[in-house]
Amino acid sequence: MKRIIALLVACLLVIAVELLCSWTGTLYYLTQMTMSAYYSLLIIGLCVVMGYAGQISLGHAGFFAIGGYLSAALTTRNLLLFHDSLLVRGLDFAGLLVTGKDIYGGALVVVTPWAACLFAVLVAATIAFLIGIPVLKLKGHYLAMATLGFGIIIYRLALASSYFGGADGISAVRPFPLCPGLSVSGGPSTRVENYYIAWGLVLLGVILLRNLINSRIGRALRAIHGSEEAAESMGVDTARYKLYIFVLSAVLAAIAGVFLTHYNGGIGPSEASVMKSVRYVAIVAVGGMAHLWGALTMSIVLNFLSLRGVFGTYDDAIFGTILILIMLFAPEGILRINVGQKLLSLGGVFKKGGRKD
Amino acid sequence: MALLEVENLQKRFGGLLAVDDVSFTVKQGLIKAVIGPNGAGKTTLFNLISGALPPTSGRIRYNGDDLGGKKPHSIAALGIARTYQNVKMFAGMTALENVMVGRHVRSRSGFLASMLKMPWTWSEEKEIRKRSVELLDLLGVADVADKEATSLAFGQQRAVEFARALAMEPSLLLLDEPAAGLNIYETAEVGRLIVRIRDLGITVLLVEHDMSLVMDISDEILVLSFGQTIAEGIPAAIQQDPEVIKIYLGE
Prior knowledge:
heterodimer, A: mainly alpha, ABC transporter involved in vitamin B12 uptake, BtuC, two-stranded antiparallel sheet, 68% helix, globular, disordered C terminus, B: alpha/beta, Rossmann fold, 6-stranded mixed β-sheet, 4-stranded antiparallel β-sheet
């Protein structure tokens, strides 16, 4: 019951923000709210990996970038030159190509967004799987360093490759038509629809992840967090479960990357940078690690402020500072310590000891 | 018939032979105790049986299956449960949730079904919860079911750990010093509990330092010293064994 109420409140809040922005004529805020939503999709996945399964990843910006970059490249890079190749003809035959005109009026042949999206997410999942097998054997800061290394590789690849646009990234990425009359794109005319697409996706993600957390699998993941050795002796295949949850979170990150790229109409190497990964970890920590709603709330707040430019050029410094302060003073996250516990002790009306996830 | 057969088991840590050519069997439906001074290799023996450590050489058979090369989770799935000398509760989970993890091997909902909350997972979840509550009740800790497990008193944590192991419905239960850190009343309680577990048809292999407990409840005793078997037999025979007396009392 509590879970349904929390979800209902979240839905109402999403609608309320939209209405408030409409009434006050500040619909432009919805753009940042939409972008925050896509980052939040990555954050909630990372939250389950870190907070519940107890594994850390400093490479999630990498998975986000794999999703975003692949989808961007496939839907913008002209395949006309290769139209004789077997692969392109095969794609054409399967109906996975679209033709159009580039900005100079030349003929353009690219992959359809749906196919590009699917491919991008599959690649991210495969890479997460292949990287995860050796890397997830590591624990603690060794795991952090290994995933950090992965993130750096993806960043440098994006920066070095001309196919991915080098330091400029890829621009002029076309909208992603989800269904007739509804597409992921950043124009002011489709702002409201896109706000709801993004938040619909995030809330769907929250529902799925919460179901997972409160299931047999979720308990196994939390048991791994508590004591990997004891979890294993309870019959939990710890290596497999860690791998699966890692891949799942990579898939969420890749989906977020695909959608945000089509929404923004482009992607640049900064999305793959290590500081982005650090930022995601910081947000999960501020939200309280094993606290899906907390991570989501802090993700909206911090991403929104950052995207509005409140932190100015000190953006990365702010997130670094947040991470240090949280680790020092509120390792359980600020929502849990300050508001949650104080309200509980003040009110005394709520039942104590219940899980607040 | 022997449920567990250990043949010429050896474990070497660098220059130390922690378990040196140990062979014994555990018969179905009995309580067998492994005793010996500190450093005799008792816990190492448990880690070898549960798969937490690979043996250097030798063989362990359980119900006819060779456990060699199997990971701990597959060994657990075969029906071997264990508890730890220094209770390993899952932090951040309630006592009930801890026991519910024990039902893992007896349930099968996967990642996708759990995420989508498929109808068949509901009944399984209900069953898991019901059995776990029953076990907490059996162990007398049902009143702390919703408390965080690591915040409980040591004796209660031990009880929850027992419940968690029993939730696996094992056929062999490995108990590593179940009475460590308990007072004499609690120890007697644990003794009665172990006998009750045996009467449920679960074979018990335990490591224990508390001699009166071991002599009271064991059907058979294996004595180890410096990784080697010193004696094996029924409690009355072990008490009379000159080698054993020498180890415990000195010459």
